[in-house]
Amino acid sequence: MEYYNKQFCIEVWGDYACFTRPEMKVERVSYDVITPSAARAVFEAIFWKPAIQWKVKKIEILNPIRWISVRRNEVAKLMSPQSKQIFIEEDRQQKAGLFLRDVAYRLYAEMEFINPKNLKFNETPDELKDQEEGIILRSTENPGKYNAMFERRAKKGQCFNQPYLGCREFSCNFRLIEDPEKEIKRPIAEDKELGFMLYDMDFTNEKDPKPMFFRVHLNQEIIEVPPMDSEEVRR
User: Please, is 133 exposed, middle or buried when counting C-beta atoms within 10 Å of its C-beta (0-12, 13-18, 19+)?
Assistant: First the structure.
């Protein structure tokens, strides 16, 4: 069976956002716009299954880039099985952060359906076993099912966990855009060079994931996200 990948569009907005630059070691400083990895996380928060993979294609910036400087309390230690307890009053640190405010984006991502032949399942009555390749196939697996599930969840505002903009405390609202061409609010007409930005993490070696970067060109406040295997993505 031939499968095709469908592209979806959602609009997200929130009061604050922080897409932290990894080169800033102490203070949190945000990129100017949302990163592809943060956009992917929003889609995954709404809907994710082992049989699909989200690939961000385009990002539209709907509001002007505004900044706000905030000082907030953070805990200097991480809880672990070896530590019995953490006294917040003793390990509290006050740090400054440069965040974004009043943000709104329109995110475009493609739901890539993973062929059942690349997956293994526990055998159930609605599954078939491929004798030649020695793997189990689920007879009901098809991209249409997952496309409909995402559309239904996005329209109702359902999500597995609350989507957020970079940091978990900066939760965001979202809505499904069925026809972006009919939207009244358009991206701001401005061209800008933002330099290199974090693309995502490369988990080819799960024990040693590596960051990937790409150069961001804002063309009328639109970011065209290159494919992961393109020459534009630096490892």
Answer: exposed
Label residue 173 left, alpha or beta by phi (over 0 means left) and psi (-120 to 50 means alpha): beta
Please state, for a pLDDT cut of 70, what percent of the chain lies above it. 87
> How far from the centroid of its chain's Cα atoms is residue 226's Cα?
15
Question: What pTM was estimated for this model as a whole?
Answer: 0.83
**SS3 category, 37:** helix
Neighbours of 171 (CB within 10 A): 15
Q: CB 215: neighbour CB atoms within 10 A?
A: 13
Q: Can you give the pLDDT at residue 126?
A: 41
Please, what sign has the CA dihedral across residues 155, 126, 122, 55? negative
Assigned token pair, 201: 């993490």
Task: Summarize pLDDT for 35-44 with one digit per residue, the tens.
Answer: 999 999 999 9
Look at the block and give the residue holding tokens 């709907």.
Answer: 62
Q: For residue 154, give the 3-state DSSP assignment.
A: helix
What amino acid is encoded at 19 in this protein? F
Burial 172-204 (b: 16+ CB within 10 A, else e): bebebbeeeeeeeeebeeeeeeeeebbbbeeee
Measured in whole angstroms, the distance separating CA 9 from the mean position of its chain's CA atoms is 13
